[in-house]
């Protein structure tokens, strides 16, 4: 086995080099290009580097899948090719200037780090595996690199597409939260009935797990606010798809602002939903509702003053603003006595 270990030595160096690349990609700032940025050239190059990386992963994995093992010389060559493929991926990623949009850059960065992480995982697996056989882990790791490399074809090609996909993801999360809460409220008087039944008595005397009538009044306005969150995201997403452009720096920045504030909506919805379960603390509910309401008013404000809202869109902005205020005022009224 010493000879086998010796043959794999170059892979150790590669793993170290790949970890350094990973750290750089995670933290690094892009070069503000020396030459003008050409999207078609960038996407072609990125697609090619991802493809080459996929092929190198296959070659490396095959070389270590059955005896005889590659010679030290072959292993050095394989290792060098893997390292060059990953360096090429990182280099092309760095061509993408910040000015193209931070939402787009984050998505390309995530795809890039997944490829590098996948390759690190594969070298790990080969270094830790018994030498004679192709392990299940090695198959899984190789598939992982292939999958990460295929991601490039699904990436949004500009910041308008990137922000639309970010908003759609937020909307999906909020939809789920709203459905879950509606379901809990319909389940009847006792949201925990199915899990906390007292076996002997067939009921529980603990008020803390029930919603009182007053709780339910308060919660219906909270539901109103949660539904308004879903409507805001849906409408803003529609406007971004219909009117969003990523041509001028101003348009690109406005889209990023929308994505940034949209990212605050689902955590705020979750916080509010958590505080709605019994025992209800009306003040906690009010605080969480106020936080969500302010985030919603902010996204409506940003949308309204941006290029995605021509005058024809101002009706729904006003309508949703009013819906947020209406529900928030009711929540304030219900909790007034608690202050």
Automatic annotation (TrEMBL):
Its main location: cytoplasm. It comes from the Eukaryota. The gene is Ccndbp1. Belongs to the CCNDBP1 family. It is found in: Cytoplasm; Nucleus. One of its GO terms (cellular component) is cytoplasm. This is CCDB1 protein. InterPro entries: GCIP-like, GCIP-like_N, GCIP_C. Residues 197-301 form the Cyclin-D1-binding protein 1-like C-terminal domain. The keyword Cytoplasm applies. Residues 46-185 form the Cyclin-D1-binding protein 1-like N-terminal domain. Keywords: Cell cycle, Cytoplasm, Nucleus.
